Every structure is written in structure tokens, then in C-alpha cells.
Amino acid sequence: MANGSPSIRLWHIxxxxxxxxxxxxxxxxxxxxxxxxxxxxxxxxxxxxLQTIFFPDQSMVYADFEICPLEPRIEGHMQAACxxxxxxxxxxxx
Length: 94
Fold this sequence. Notes:
By secondary structure, the chain is mostly beta strands.
């Protein structure tokens, strides 16, 4: 989780690249959450294994993520993506 929008961000370890997480392509394009209430990037659909970690506590999570980019990568910019799957999760609560 992060302050600002999108509220969930993934840092690609070993790079300066950051992904801003959305539920899916439609949520990215329209900005509307899948339930029709709220803004998609403030509470995107994420795998259940992460849902219990992120909410309500903030945590640093290390894992193997399979992501789906939702827009082309531009060096120096956050890139919109959604999380397809996650494995090997390690949580560092702060």
C-alpha cells in the first residue's frame, strides 16, 4: 500500500520500475471499481492471499508476482498493471 493513487504499488526489485495496481483493463480505462462503487485504483481486486495481508494493516510484501501490464512501459513512469497470481509470499509488517 502507498499514500496516493494507486494505493497498491509493486516495485520490481533490482530496478527503479514501479507498477500501479488496478483490478483489470476495464478498471484502468474507466476508473470504476468492479462492484461499481468507488475508484478502482483505491481498492483493486487482488488475489485472496494478498487481500488478508494488505487490509486493514499495511505491510511490505515480497513475493513472486505474475502481473499483466495494462499500458506500455515508459522509462521513469509508473506503469498500470493488474496482478494475475502470486506465490512464495513473505510479509514484513511495519
